[in-house]
Amino acid sequence: MRRAVIIFTAVLGFLFTSLGFGATSALAEGEALQGTLINANQPVAGVAIKVFDQGGTSAGEATSGPDGKWVVPLKAAGTYKVDLDTATLPQGVTVTTGRSSLTLTVFEGAARNVLFPLGGAAATGPGAATPEDEGNSQLSRILDLIYTGIHFGLIIALAALGLSLIFGTMGLTNFAHGELITFGAVGCFFLNVTVGLPLELAAVAAVVLGGAFGYFQDRLFWGWLRNRRTGLIGMMIISIGLALILRYLYLFFFAGDTRQYSAYVAQPGMDLGLISVAPKNLIMDAVAIVVLIGVSLALVMTRLGKATRAVSTNPSLAAASGISVDSIIRLVWTIGGALAALSGVMLGVFQGVNYQMGFQILLLVFAAVTLGGLGTAFGALLGSLVVGLATQLSTLWIPTELKNVGALVVLIVIILVRPQGILGRRERIG
Amino acid sequence: MNWDIILGVSLESLINATMIAYALAAIGLNVHFGYTGLLNFGQSAFLGVAAYGLAMIVATFGLPFWVGILAGLGGAVILALLLGIPTLRLRADYLAIVTIAAAEIVRLLFRSVSLSEWTGGSDGLQAFSDDFYAMNPYSGAVEISTLISFDERELWIMTVGWVLVAIALLIVFLAMRSPWGRVIKAIREDEDAVRSLGKNVVSYKMQSLILGGVLGSLGGFVIALRNAAVQPDTYGTEFTFYMYTIVILGGAARVFGPVVGSMIFWFLLTFINAFLPSAIDAGLIPSWLMNKNQAGAVGYIFVGLGLVLLLIFRPQGIFGDKKEVMLDGR
């Protein structure tokens, strides 16, 4: 009997880990809203926070602890309204922005930080607490979504450019590209939090490491497979296997929870008229735009860029005209790895670091690349912005949790009407 | 370190319901990938639609069990049509991306809060399997030697599952030696040649997609009834990746390949998942190397490694013929 019980427990435990519950249900865990209430460098305890979902039903509440921290675990990703009960604030302390009620989006598997900047009542002007009128807030919501869409689109574009170049030059649909993204985020986390480098330095180092990871992946693995004349579909399935290995290696070393970098976690937004944007996001946008334009210009203007485009058009002809196809592909892997790592670092700042963040975003990257036209670099940029805006703006009509569905439906519709994508060439789709 | 238990659960997983569900899913996928050369990365959606079809009909709408089974099968056919119409004209890698996207859409819809009135959201649905277990002819557990024992519920689902496996294998065997099967295999080898012989390639591919989807959906019923619950994240993309590992391990385009592949896959995975935690407990694996939380990831690292090594060194798997494995791009 006892043995039966033990076996039963073993089987049960095993089933939970093996049926993919252990693997995928991590998605469902960890969604939360959290924050720290601080007034004049002192934590504020005993403040009541209430969270409501879109339907207006309560999704949980919390009271800030002695360290000023509060957490409301959530059941699912989505849009939530967070109310700070101003009556529970200590005498003379107010929310300096006058917004004690915020509407925020929580992403799958990520804990979202909520910032209520507190200050003495004297610091607040009498007009600061006036609620915004309705029309204005609808417009600012749309503008906010457009901004987030572009921001998200740029993050996707960084990854999509590399994926598209790799597809163009060696024909591989790389399902392990998401793991290059995670590599950047996890590498940056390691250097930033474990080693203790400042985030900016850690980010640069992570991008360099990402490039090296791409280079060695091609040098040691994909290049070897090319020499063995492995078929393209074989390589595609191999990339799935490689993605599994890498993802679970991240899980092995990084564990399953979502963690934040040590700096810029909850940066207060700058008021830009109708929307408020954290300066970190603007800086990241600028970096992304500069990098994307730089790589695109390099593709058009430099000899190496020309060689890259020659290889993606016709590898044999490129080889015949004296271009070293292998070293071009290796270069593309290096750039692709670095771009993906940069994308991962930015995604990590945006939504926290998680071992399957790259895998979760991979389908959107694929959607962007396919939308723009597989193998075309500029198409990938265009497709990414479309995907970014489509995911964000679709939340005006459909629930936030389904916004990725919106982007994927757009992908399928585009394939129906224009299978070669926006900038693709007809003969590629066969 | 209790070798009896480790060996016991590993041996059980050679024939238990989980293995049967994956075998059925892989038999369906083998029709797509092995015989027709369709890179369907959305096979998990077929299982999900079947399982949810059954669960929703019974648990949400209160209709009889058999209506649920019919709804699940019908759902799989409809999904095949929806998936196939836009994608079957496309090249292999496009097909892969679109099918994987479609499977994610299905999963996200199942777990969405707005549909939770019918699907139960991320918690899924329970209480739909009573009618099935009411038909259970077994009344007690069976022990085979001292290592393996199955309770009556598991025995009943295993019996049904193995009958389904036998039927599915028979269908595949008969279909693939028929003229229809020869056309299907010819499409894998050279689509244009088949087209030039006057065959409607898209229509044949669609029939193959439906056949494989329906066979796979049987696995969805087995897994739902085995757990007496459906949960959206079971039907994620990784599920499909495991099916590919199984198909390639056993040998693509071989009738018995998926079943043998599923047996070996589950035996090894169960063994690793049972062995590592107890080896850590027993101090055989030093704690700086691995703790019990990390042990769960190791099994999946080996799955990925196995898939990579198989495709590089033995793409035909155990039984396959290298000439029959569709691994070259077009």
As a percent range, the share of strand residues of chain A is: 5-15%
Query: What is the CA–CA distance across the termini of chain B?
Result: 51 Å
Which consecutive residue ranges of chain A, at least 5 long each, have pLDDT under 50? 1-29, 121-133
Oligomer: heterodimer
Strand content of the residues of chain B, in percent? under 5%
Question: What CATH architecture of the largest domain in chain A would you give?
Answer: Orthogonal Bundle
Estimated structural class of chain B: mainly alpha
Counting H and I runs of at least 4 residues, what is the number of helices of chain B?
Answer: 14
> Structural class, from helix and strand content of chain A?
alpha+beta
InterPro entries (chain B): ABC_transp_permease, LivM-like
Keywords (chain B): Cell membrane, Membrane, Transmembrane, Transmembrane helix
Transmembrane segments (chain B): 6-31, 38-59, 65-85, 155-176, 209-229, 241-257, 264-289, 295-313
Protein name (chain B): Branched-chain amino acid ABC transporter permease
